Amino acid sequence: QSEDSDKSSAESDSETEVEQVSGYHKLLATLKTSPESETEEEEDESESEEPEESEAEMGSEGSQETGEAEGGEEDKNDVPEEEEEATAEQILSQEQADGTDTSCDPRHGVIEEFTDVKHESEFSLETNFMEEESGDCNADKRDSNPFKQHMDKELEDKEIEKMSTLPKTSNQSQWPRVGQLIFSSTLEKHKTLKADKEVDVKQLHLHKPLESTWPKVNKQFLSSVDKPSDSPFTPLQRELFCIMNSYRDLFYPERNALTNGEEIRHAYCLHALNHVLKANAQVLSNNTKRRDRKPGTDTDDYRDQGLTRPKVLMIVPFRECALRIVHALISLLEVNDKKKIDVSNKKRFKGEFGSDPEEKPPNLKRPEDYEAVFAGNIDDHFRIGVAILQKSMRLYAPFYSSDIIIASPLGIRTVIGAEGEKKRDFDFLSSIEILIIDQADIYLMQNWEHVLHLMKHINLLPLDSHGVDFSRVRMLNLNNWSKYYRQTLLFSALQDPQINSVFNKHCFNYSGQVAVRNMPLTGSISHVAVQLPHVFRRLEAESVTSVIDSRFQFFIDKVLPEYRDAIMSHTLIYVPSYFDYVRLRNYFKKEDLNFTHICEYTKKAAVCRARRFFLKGEKQFLLFTERFHFYKRYTIKGIRNLIFYELPTYSHFYSEICNMLRATDSGVDSTWTCTVLYSKYDAQKLAAVVGIDRTAQMLQSKKNVHLFVTGEN
Q: Could you tell me how far CA 617 lies from the centroid of its own chain?
């Protein structure tokens, strides 16, 4: 967050106050909204009476791009710092009754995190040996095993130099389910992967228990149309897992929380668990061989681990996501109902990562995709270590004793810390072999800087040895080549330049990369249900960096003058970037324009006032941020003129905002207008709104484009 403040300073010179309240206390404040603000007058809108639902993300540090709070009227309501005592006391008494340590729960306001020290020796890789009955000691010696092939390959210096200096070569392929794929690699010897039409579980080289558990666990996603003899994968899972199992990097930008989110989650959980079980089996097997070897035997054959133990890092947005991942991992480890695995601290985990269904008010009406994204516990500040050893799982393992770390971007950022901080640690990221970033689009709504900060600190040489036995460390780790072996799996609901940049600039896997690149044919404009003229106004910019200033200048010189007249009242200006919002708000104040504004930091009472002023026409303009819409999804009444200062990040927000016009009048108003600003650098967003064919025409032409939508097209 401190890094971002530099960026925004130029655009928010007139900001007078800086928010100093912690993200956690803001979260608490949303749980204690005063009754007065609840009863704020609002024309028959049930959501204005809305109880305290999903404001955790809006107030949390993870959703902030800058440290600046809303100026003006919103700042009057300081955030209370007290906790919700009853809840805290109930949890505390319950956990004390269970005999559990409560130091880790952020709800108790204690900084010290709980880590399970009690089971350290039981889950230690150094002191345990392979059980005879597991029968998988020698399974990983098979030459075709993807895990062995990937981790045992010895790269040469010239290949590393090649990957560091030469551009990647790429080729395309069309697969039945995922569509168009772009394969890219610097090392030319890699062949294009072909989609498996049918998959025999035994051919995937899964670790032994997973061969029997996966078909049972995944049964819920298989259609009744599928024949019983068919693959235990859905068509989408089959193709995605084929790429994952080849240890290539993967970017899949069509993850949908409503439709395929859970089947994707299960597929990457299978891959991650398979990797961990194989890696640990190799270490335990070598422990046994070292114990039984004759004195004087060469020990260089047992290089089987990294400089630190964590192998898999899963980045997810909310605690509910971590809960579902852990449940999936447990299910995949339990061979049958009789053979339950031992899970340490399971009760504690359910208490801290679970949610109470009764907490959510039943009368809230939100779109289905909103309900799917914000289901369960939506706290965005968490991290947890998971250790897996044969038939046991340990939750809350210390990071240096963990195999898998599950965290939110904010949760991992607060551990990594910033330059100059005394208490910071990122050595545990040194030997990550699989990085999974799920729901990457949500981090654009939280704080993308946290993701970039993580990418800068992953796979660096550790500053401390952390008790590692260097005779067991792979040469790739000692050579500081870990990043060339790390597989990155990136899942998002959309394509975005910032997400693309992480995949292109921070992923160095020698096995190559696969990106799904399907272009939308129609676009979300086809879902606009009101008759509305859409005017797309093109602005010129010399570079990506100058487009921010070019857009602002274009808006105040060419667009805003047309809307200053009182006849153009009820104008909503949709602003995706908080920086742009602050800049526009400051300009509107300076010009003394009749406006009101709503952003993700606006207090509930101020939101109600702004909506009422706008509906009644007392305020001509409403500045409205994308993040507010993302987290709240209110219907704004009274819109007659729409200006999209920039195309929305989520394409379906375009049709949602346009369809708000019908919330005011039952009929169609011939004076309704919709103006959209775009540049040549908005190609992906534009295609998602108007479709790929129109986008190509619009980018070739330098004229404004007028589209008239007559209901559901």
A: 38
pLDDT the model gives residue 227: 54
Residue type, 561: P
Q: Residue 13 burial (CB < 10 Å; 0-12/13-18/19+)?
A: exposed
Structure-block tokens of residue 271? 């891959």
Token pair, residue 42, equals: 């609002």
Each residue's pLDDT tens digit, 357-394: 766 666 678 899 999 999 999 999 999 999 998 789 99
Domain count of the fold of the chain: 2
Angle, CA of 491, 496 and 500, to the nearest 5°? 70
Do 414 and 529 lie in one domain? The reply is no
The pLDDT, as a whole number, for residue 229 is 53
Q: How many degrees, rounded to 5, is the angle at CA 478 between CA 472 and CA 483?
A: 115
Rg (CA), the chain: 27
* Residue where a domain stops, chosen among 518, 537, 555: 518
Identify the pLDDT of residue 439: 98
In a domain, 476, yes or no: yes
Same domain? For 501 and 540 the reply is no
Q: What is the dihedral of CA 292, 294, 296, 298, to 10 degrees?
A: -60
Q: What's residue 670's pLDDT?
A: 66
Look at residue 619 in the predicted model and tell me its pLDDT.
Answer: 94
Same domain, 513 and 538: no
DSSP H helix total and E strand total for the chain: 27, 18
Is residue 600 a contact partner of residue 627, using CB atoms and an 8 Å limit?
Answer: yes
636 and 696 co-located in one domain? yes
Amino acid of residue 444: L
Secondary structure element (H or E) that encloses residue 487, with its range: strand 487-491
Q: Contact 503/672 with Cβ under 8 angstroms?
A: no
The pLDDT score that the predictor gives to residue 345 is: 94
Residue 450 in domain: yes
Residue spans of the chain under pLDDT 70? 1-112, 126-127, 130-144, 188-192, 197-199, 224-230, 295-300, 358-363, 663-670, 708-713
How many whole angstroms separate alpha carbon 141 and alpha carbon 152?
A: 11
Clarify whether residues 512 and 580 are in a common domain.
no
State the burial class of residue 641 (Cβ atoms within 10 Å of its Cβ: 0-12, 13-18, 19+). buried
Which token pair is 342?
């031992």
Flag whether 451 is in a domain.
yes
Domain termination site, one of 484, 518, 552 = 518
In a domain, 342, yes or no: no
The span from the CA of 670 to the CA of 665, in Å, is 12
